[in-house]
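Repro:
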Amino acid sequence: MRFPSLYRILTLGLSLGLLGNVVGAQSAVGIFDAQADVGRPRPGSALYDSQRQTYLVAGSGQNMWGDHDDFHFVWKRMTGNFILSTRARFLGPGVEPHRKIGWTIRPSLETSSTHVTAALHGDGLMSLQFRRTTGATTEEAKSRDSLPNSDAVIQLERRDGVYIMSVARFGDTLVTQELAGVSLPDTVYVGLFVCAHNDSIVERATFSNVRVTKPAKRDLVAYRDYLGSNLEILDVRSGNATIVQQYHGSFQAPNWTRDGKALIYAQEGRLYRFDIASRSAQAINTGFATRNNNDHVLAFDGRMMAISHHAVEDSGASIIYTVPTTGGTPKRVTAKGPSYLHGWSPDGRWLVFTGIRGDELDVYKIAAAGGNEIRLTSAPGLDDGPEYTPDGSYIYFNSSRTGRMQIWRMRPDGSGQQQITNDGFNNWFPHISPDGKWIAYLSFPPDVAADDHPFYKHVLLRLMPIAGGPSRVIAYVYGGQGTINVPSWSPDGKRLAFVSNSTMQVAVSPGSPGGAAALRSTIAFVSTRHDPAADPMVNPQRALLAAEIYLMNADGTSPRRLTENTYYDGFPSLSPDGRRVVFDSNRLRAEGEPFNVSDLFVMNADGTGQTHLLRGSSATWSADGKQIAFHGSASGKGQPIKPDPGAATSDNDIFVLNVENVVRNGAKPRNITNSPDAIDDDADWSPNAQKIVFTSHAVTDDPINSVTAEIYTIDVVGSGKPQRLTNNTEEERAPAWSPDGKRIVFSCRRGGPDFEICVMNADGTGQVQLTDNDVPDLTPSWSPDGKKIVFHRRVGGRGQLQLFLVNADGTGELQLTFPPGINAFPNWGEVRD
């Protein structure tokens, strides 16, 4: 409860019963917010396999038809345009031929809601179903593709009010149909569903390769504006792809190290080595070459890497260099530019690349040590993407010489040029498997120009035998440029690495991905700045529900939003390693519960991977980042003692919990204060991990104007009697350790109704008041270097809260934020660039 007297400050007159419940809301499931039974089916369920990133969903229900629907739904809230994609399959023969699985989009969880649904039936019928108005009769448009007993790919896209269903048997190309004239609101529930078409049974289905993509906006400017990036690893045999890394900016073109332990990709001019086991990335030292594009290749022995750097001395043209894979000073290879690298010969002697010479784009080769370049192609059109076969007998490439981009091959001297593919797609970047038996390549749709390979399109990864034969689709991807520009087979030939794209929840400033480079001083906080109409003075309920988690630089610049929903999110706390944020949310409030109950969630520091932990509030991390301490009801049944979000319950204690254990197996927290006669809250973990500081007050005290609320410390093991640090008849709140563990900052009352910022030594001595004014100063947090303190203060009318900085000695006070509304609950930590 790090926001004392929020009722008085922000929500005066707010009734706890104003917010309706979320029907059937439960804990998060994978990337989805929750699951629910819609209508009156038998109870369904959903399980998420985090290793394979697959979902097992069970559902009953009489039907999804007529004027109402009964089904089990795994959902998340979305706005704007989006693309929903999955690979889906029924489990077992089933009972009803019209049992259904797929995607549905609906504005509410009511059984008679309007909706648009892509439904695969048990008998293979694939239809785009929709209800135009609430309670109206369902209509449908049947796909010309029938998928009986199928391993089906189901996509459902909303594009500027038009709904597009694309379906295929896995391995085939997609069949698409559109639906216009159905009006759904901007904010909708989207997700996976199962309906048994028989309310006496439960059917099951598996969903893999589940992607919820926010596509590029129409006004995106290529090579200036970028979407976020997913690094994916595809098991070629099974077709299952898993996301192993995400970044809110652009990284591109992964290729494997020869030991199979890491991937190397390009990100914003630098090259990074991503360790697959630890899921962390480290920048590779390429000396002066810091303007690299996505064309980089490892030698067959893995010791050297060739790169394409935009050299200032060549007016920014791409020039090829070689550098040790472990890093070093690059050595120039090509004298002319632009030259875009694509392949290295198996014997290590030659590099092949695309060169722009005049108006022609052709394939060239050059000795890896440098020398004269040799032109291999001269046909009109664009020739690109050259790559040697593992035995060195051929160079495969793509060419638009026939009017459509297709895969070709030639001998290493340029002779014997032969077309390999001949279809309606534009096929790019052939990559030969290590055993020389397969070609993987990227297919752009026909509406993309033959000589273009743009970002952010619906593309296909396809596989064909090198000896000839039909191609099959192995991945359905939103990507394009940067997806597989360079050799991307694993050394054992079992996996492919590629990049897909999506607008993510926050645009992070360019820098290293999670796990790389240095930590940057960052403030996590809560804000309503994205909703200027959420004025706490006009509608306090709306203001609270608009509260989302943000990060910003320590100087107040570059604010970036992490959460985006219609619930209250608050009290963020950054993990010591800068990778994660734990926070409060009332998004799982059940029917009949008070508005201000809180559950704890954890997410990555970029806002992805939001995962429910348990009921509780105001968490703090242990020094090793493995555990959290928080306050919660000892009985599990206690109710908040006042209307503030995150308020303590009537039997509140301090608990400790291992985060991974609760995520993996639902481990229970350990109560370390266990004080029936007191209400304990506002925990903060000491930097040496030995103690927790917290506040405590008598159960009988006034919850609004407490006179017994004092600050204590207790050993983390929970042994021994808590040590009392403050002793007066005024309220103290929100204690926080300094980074060196020698001091504690807290909110204090000193002879008046409002709170000020105070500091004291870790043993309670030397108490000093830092601020002195007639408005509340609350929720203080130390800078990582211990020199400054950030806190929030009321500025202007009721509920107008802004962040302020002050030096640790009370001097140099400075307002940090200015957007109207709520800017509060700061937690100063560090995140990785």
